[in-house]
Amino acid sequence: MVQSAVAAIVNYKGKVLLGKKRKDSSNVLAGEWHLPGEKVENGESDESALLRCLNEEASIDIRVGKYLGSHFSPTNKRKVNWYECFSETDSIFCGSDLEDVKWVLKKEVLNNCGEEARKLLPNEIIEYFN
User: Fold this and answer.
1) How many CB atoms lie within 10 A of CB 111?
2) CA-CA distances (angstroms) from residue 66 to 9, 17, 33, 46?
3) Disulfide engineering: 53 pairs with which of 34, 38, 74, 111, CB 3.0-4.6 Å?
4) What are phi and psi of 51, to 5 degrees?
């Protein structure tokens, strides 16, 4: 069985949430800004994984919106399901395996993501920001 993961585009008043992985992380995105995502735990729904992820990484509650597409991560062959999400607040606090979190204008997301993070984005997500 293929493990799955979820990724979120969290919107708040024209801005999108980005997280910066800790430099000492073993993750391929160590030290880079990226869109938040998380592995789905056994028995967990995509929505539950997204709610947990954003609570752990940025201390915010979100509303999960529409499904945007899926792709297989080239790094670990995990199926990643992408969702458009929404926050009711811009109050965020760094947590989990991140060293920082920030809001950026939607049109500037791709320029703010690190090179490795951009390489991992499927075409549907790149188009979402163009």
Assistant:
1) 11
2) 10, 17, 23, 12
3) 38
4) -60, -45
Domain locations in the chain? 4-129
- 60-110: per-residue pLDDT in tens? 999 999 999 998 887 767 899 999 999 999 999 998 789 999 999 999 999
Q: Which residues contact 81 (CB under 8 A, 6 or more apart)?
A: 4, 5, 6, 7, 46, 67, 69, 70
Q: Is the pLDDT of residue 2 over 80?
A: no
Token pair 């997204």: residue: 50
Tell me the DSSP string of 61-116.
-EEEEEEEEEEE-TTT--EEEEEEEEES-------TTEEEEEEEEGGGHHHHS-HH
Say which amino acid occupies 15. K
- Mean pLDDT score of the chain: 92
In this prediction the pTM is 0.92
Chain center to CA of 3: 17
CATH number belonging to domain 4-129: 3.90.79.10
